[in-house]
Amino acid sequence: METTPDLPAYDEAVRLLQEAGVPTGAAEAHGIITGVLCAPEGARVAWQGLILGREAARNHETASTLSQALAALHRATYAHLHGLECDFAPLLPGDEHSLAEQIEGLTDWCRGYLLGLHAGGVPETRTLSGDAGEIVRDITRLSEAELDASLADEEEAKALVEIVEYLRVGVQLVFEELQPPASRH
Predict the structure, then answer these.
(1) DSSP character for 136?
(2) Which of 69, 74, 108, 110 could form a disulfide with 143 if both were Cys (CB 3.0 to 4.6 A apart)?
(3) Nearest to 57 by CA among 116, 17, 97, 96
(4) What is the pLDDT of residue 180?
(5) Is the separation of the CB atoms in 40 and 179 below 8 Å?
(6) Do 22 and 53 touch, CB atoms closer than 8 A?
(7) Nearest CA-CA partner of 38 in 96, 8, 81, 80
(8) DSSP string over 51-86
(9) In 35-60, which positions are buried (b, 16+ CB within 10 angstroms) versus exposed (e)?
(10) CATH number of 10-184
(11) How far apart are CA 179 and CA 183, in angstroms?
């Protein structure tokens, strides 16, 4: 049985994007890729342009390394969404990062996901119906999240874990609802 490729490490993705002078963060880049892959017209989208924007890598070696890393991220995300294990997970800062950085990464991922959906043929995410519509509306709200100073760090951390799990399952459901059955496997 073939194993699903692992996502690149978050901090490595951050480093490669920064070295290439790309303003898009790692979480947002993964959100864009995921949104494009979930969208009905995603296969036709030049997703790398959404991540890189008009920025050019500073040198050929950095550009090549970044291109390879983004392609690996795309392949791994594709495999996770199409896999039978339902092991999709957003690429976010881990526990070694501050809670504020983790929440910022979550909001960046959500904004990227919405951009990817839109670019992939979902023109008005608010018009999606059923469970997919509810999940995308929740992701829209999460894209505007801010750290709540009134909650203790432990409560915020627990809420973040629950939100990431919701995203993990919710994105898989959106993918299954928006993708034609023939393209899923």
Answers:
(1) H
(2) 110
(3) 17
(4) 66
(5) yes
(6) yes
(7) 81
(8) HHTT---SSHHHHHHHHHHHHHHHHHHHHHHHSSS-
(9) bbbbbeebeebebeebbbeeeebeee
(10) 1.20.120.740
(11) 7
Confidence of residue 59 (pLDDT cuts 50, 70, 90): very low
From first CA to last CA, the distance across the chain in angstroms is: 15
Separation of alpha carbons 110 and 146, rounded Å: 13
Q: How many CB atoms lie within 10 A of CB 152?
A: 9
Average pLDDT, the chain: 84
- Whether the CB-CB separation of 37 and 81 falls below 8 Å is answered with yes
pTM of the model: 0.89
- What's the rounded Cα separation, in Å, for the pair 72 and 131? 30
Task: Give, in degrees to the nearest 5, the angle at Cα 168 between 162 and 173.
Answer: 125
